[in-house]
Design brief:
- The chain is an alpha/beta fold.
- It has three domains: 164 residues, Rossmann fold (3-Layer(aba) Sandwich); 137 residues, Hypothetical Protein Tm841, Chain: A,domain 3 (2-Layer Sandwich); 214 residues, Serine Threonine Protein Phosphatase 5, Tetratricopeptide repeat (Alpha Horseshoe), CATH 1.25.40.340.
- It is built from 17 helices and 14 strands.
- A hairpin with a 4-residue loop joins strand 13 and strand 14.
- Helix 10 packs antiparallel against helix 17 and helix 14 runs antiparallel to helix 15.
- The longest helix has 33 residues.
- It is globular, with a radius of gyration of 24 Å.
- About 2% of the residues have low confidence.
């Protein structure tokens, strides 16, 4: 259990603040995360990593010479927002382009992809790479769907070491691809983790049992087995990984491998060493030469009791990069010459950030009609925040059945921030479109994760449709919802039947469009569409998830609605109440 915190909602920010205060030799804070405190040679590729908080030393602890140039840090178990990633990458960029690296989770893929688009629009050459090393989360034929766990480290390090050698961006990306293709991980857990402020773990394991095939966000394992001895655990980990070799490795005998035995939060180092003694012996029996093994906490999950084993099968080039020196707060190898801080660059970055913020908040000009419509928008966002807050625990329980249990927390963070930003814009006289756009940015920033990206897209699509000039009628609102539905599908890739929020958003948008085509008033049309949404959300209980963190645990979710679909249905009904009140 996480015992030491203030406001749980501020935990990630306060942890990052304390981390930077303790490690100023290596890192300096920037909006959205941290970058190196030392100078980066002009023209060197910047490797920027990132992900949610709760995994230390990933991701901020891996920033320093020989490893990452910067890390974007999201909320607990939630990806950083595109704006945070863009900020960190801009601060880290040294003229050679940026490689964005992250674990293969839907929220990270969405936000890092959006950040890459923004960087490209700024003229910064950018590439992305998602680490997908967890063999329990998808079969070899669907390896692109695997999640990233402790294999992040060797893949990040290979790319960063190549960047340190001065290689151009495309070659650094090829190194990352090579390392990723040769990295496999597998884990087990004995208990779940408890998030700050929560009174129970995200999942539990029966006495004398272990979960097999875990994630790092509190996802339950894909199966359970009897609690093993240390030697039995080592054998399970090794034998499982040796069953799936890279395509160009026919036999483990005579191969070299970087080996990581990773503790997930509450397994003691002495226990890890007991397991590693057998891991080393078993790999030796298989003819594998171990290169610079790592035993310890490298990618954690708060207080989860669990371990994972990672093997990166090395060739001469990857071994060179794995052995290369590094100096970060949490990972050090070899020796590097002393480096001086880069005060000029820090000052320039701070000045750039200062000038990027207006001296006083301003909003675009708006018509009186649009400002009156903004009253209704603000009331609707208030209703959204209130209904999410009232159901946050329920949403977390639904999400924990087959996912990581943080949907309620993320929705509460996002909806609260959206309402606050909308109120600020409304107070400055903004029109309906700007109020929604400001709310969209705030939701995406504070929630992070998949839901943050998608709800930011929904509100932004509505804002674009409503604009700041005219009084929006029912048809225009329906048009905005239809565009939001299309945008979410484009961004997330989900379709009806995948057991996601799309299973509610599409029928809701269709029903609203049909009702407004009949010239029904907006409140009546919305009421009909919200009823459709409620039925659609209930129907997701009969579906098997085909996307997201719940996919590896598909059967467990049968009989339970999708959390994102359920929250959307609740929101549509709450907004109807606001429309009635402002009719």
């Amino acid at each position: 259990m996480t015992r030491l915190f203030n406001d749980p909602a501020a935990f990630a920010d306060e942890a990052l603040e304390g981390f930077t205060a303790a490690h100023r030799r290596w890192v300096r804070p920037v909006t959205g995360g941290v970058v190196r405190a030392t100078a980066t040679p002009v023209g060197q590729v910047a490797v920027v990593i990132g992900g949610g908080s709760g995994h230390y030393p990933a991701f901020s602890g891996l920033v320093g010479r020989g490893l990452a140039h910067g890390a974007a840090v999201g909320n607990v178990f939630a990806s950083p927002s595109a704006r945070q990633i863009h900020s960190v990458a801009t601060a880290a960029h040294a003229g050679g382009g940026v490689l964005l690296m992250y674990g293969n989770y839907a929220g990270d893929v969405l936000h890092f992809g959006q950040a890459a688009e923004r960087l490209a629009a700024d003229g910064v050459e950018t590439r992305t790479f998602a680490v997908a090393d967890d063999i329990s989360s998808a079969g070899p034929e669907e390896s692109a769907k695997r999640r990233g766990i402790a294999g992040d480290l060797p893949v990040f390090k290979a790319a960063a070491a190549a960047a340190e050698q001065g290689l151009p961006l495309e070659e650094v990306l090829r190194v990352a691809e090579r390392a990723g293709a040769r990295t496999r991980s597998f884990g087990i857990a004995f208990s779940g983790c408890t998030l700050p402020g929560a009174d129970h773990p995200l999942f539990t394991v029966p006495e004398a049992r272990m979960a097999v095939g875990l994630g790092i966000h509190g996802e339950p394992g894909i199966g359970e087995e009897a609690l093993p001895t240390a030697d039995e655990a080592a054998r399970l980990l090794v034998e499982t990984l040796l069953k799936e070799l890279p395509e160009d490795v026919a036999d483990p005998a005579g191969q070299r491998a970087a080996v990581i035995l990773n503790g997930l939060g509450s397994v003691k180092y002495e226990e890890l060493f007991v397991v590693y003694r057998r891991v080393a012996a078993l790999l030796g029996d298989a003819g594998v030469e171990i290169v610079d093994p790592e035993v310890g906490e490298l990618v954690t999950s708060f207080d989860m009791a669990g371990i994972s084993l990672t093997l990166t099968w090395l060739d001469d080039r990857l071994e060179e990069l794995w052995r290369a020196p590094a100096d970060t707060p949490a990972y050090r190898k070899g020796a590097l010459d002393a480096a001086e801080p880069d005060p000029d660059r820090a000052s320039a970055t701070a000045a750039a950030q200062d000038t990027a913020v207006p001296a006083a908040p301003v909003v675009p000009a708006a018509s009186d009609a649009s400002r009156r419509a903004a009253d209704t928008v603000l009331a609707a966002l208030d209703a959204v925040a209130r209904v999410v807050d009232a159901h946050a625990d329920e949403l977390g329980r639904i999400d924990a059945v087959a996912g990581d249990g943080d949907h309620g927390i993320g929705m509460r963070r996002g909806s609260t921030a959206a309402h606050r930003a909308a109120a600020d814009a409304h107070g400055l006289g903004a029109g309906a479109g700007t109020v929604l756009t400001r709310a969209a940015d705030a939701w995406a920033d504070k929630a992070g994760g998949t839901s943050g990206a998608l709800w930011g897209t929904i509100l932004r699509s509505l804002g674009a449709a409503l604009g700041d000039r005219d009084a929006p009628d029912a048809a225009r609102v329906a048009e905005g919802v239809t565009e939001a539905s299309a945008a979410v599908r484009r961004l997330g890739g989900a379709e009806v039947g995948d057991k996601t929020m799309v299973d509610v958003l599409v029928p809701f948008a269709d029903a609203l469009a049909a009702a407004t085509a009949e010239d029904l008033p907006l409140a009546d049309a919305w009421d009909r569409a919200a009823t459709t949404a409620t039925a659609a959300a209930a129907g997701t209980a009969d579906l098997l998830p085909r996307r997201g963190r719940a996919r590896p645990h598909a059967e467990k979710s049968l009989g339970t609605p999708d959390a994102g679909a359920h929250s959307l249905a609740l929101i549509t009904r709450a907004v109807h109440g606001a429309l009635l009140d402002h009719h």
